[in-house]
Amino acid sequence: MGISLEERDRRYRAIRELMAREELDSLLIAGRGDHMSRGNIRYITNYGIITGEQYCVFPSTGAPIFIARKTPFLAKLREAGWIPAFSETSNPQEQVKKELSNFDRGNKVGIVGMTDISVPMYLAVQAEFPDRVIDATYIFKQTRLIKSLEEIEKMQKSASIADKVFTTLRDMIRPGLSDYKIYGEVRRIIHEMGCEYSMELIDAETTKANLFYPTGDMLQTDGTLALEITPSYDGYYTQLAVSLPVGEYPPRIRGMIHVWKEALKAAVDILRPGIKVSDVYQLISNVIRDAGYSSLGQRYGHGIGLDVVDFWSLTESETMELKPGMTLALHPGMLLEHEEDGIGMGYTYLITDTGSKRLNKVEIVG
Q1: 322: which DSSP letter?
Q2: Residue 266's pLDDT is what?
């Protein structure tokens, strides 16, 4: 379980090369224990179940130092074996300033995870190093977006777990089944297959696709089960988004299935290095709009890896170019005009040297 020390060393070298280029004495990496904000911390510690305020000081030379309030999870972090130095403190601000000062050579201090750092921590660091604090999250974006072979192996395992969940759900759904029962079964399978955590969003109300947590809705004969199956294996998420019919797809949804297939195929056909994310978005939008449907939400997918949304989303404004080693959840979705009925479905893909590879093996629509 976990990632090798060789992979750790590769990451540290890549991060420090970028730090040297930007004249950074140290990085302050901030994180929280949720599905969108633990990735940066896990990337350098090999462990992700830490609650509350957590920081790691990563110097340009020397060993990183993990700083947090006292928590039983620190024992697990030590067992992960990547971080030799820990500081359990009742005053994280003072301890962070002390550790950053130990590595200060008069150059810049970078913050990784600017949206995750607490206001008191940011103000304390800014006061200690006036005019030298910068947002350095882009350093981790550059290193984390391109997955190594070890990372891809973890994501392939994660995708196989999502496939198992889908196969089980396809056989068990029936009218009258509660979203509580479905949600519980999904999580049982995911954890039994070795995942520490996962993220599932669900909607069992008629044929709506307002994904959230379970509320007690029951599946109906002419309804659908909308679900994002998102297991995290050794910290690496993949996502399988489905809209399963309880029996047969009702007529108002059946027409969408053909359009979804067309939109997905059009997108996958151009998934390759050099293609802009916004071009993929526009292509999907054209297919959906030309068929007379409205878009479901503001994006048709997102980067995925150590966070569910790994730095970027498949939107009109994202002009980043795809590169080999990037991974994304691609799930085109659409709604009936002026209605909440709709579908949103898709798989996780790896960008290869010549195109893309689907990590999920199941077919979510026959």
Answers
A1: P
A2: 97
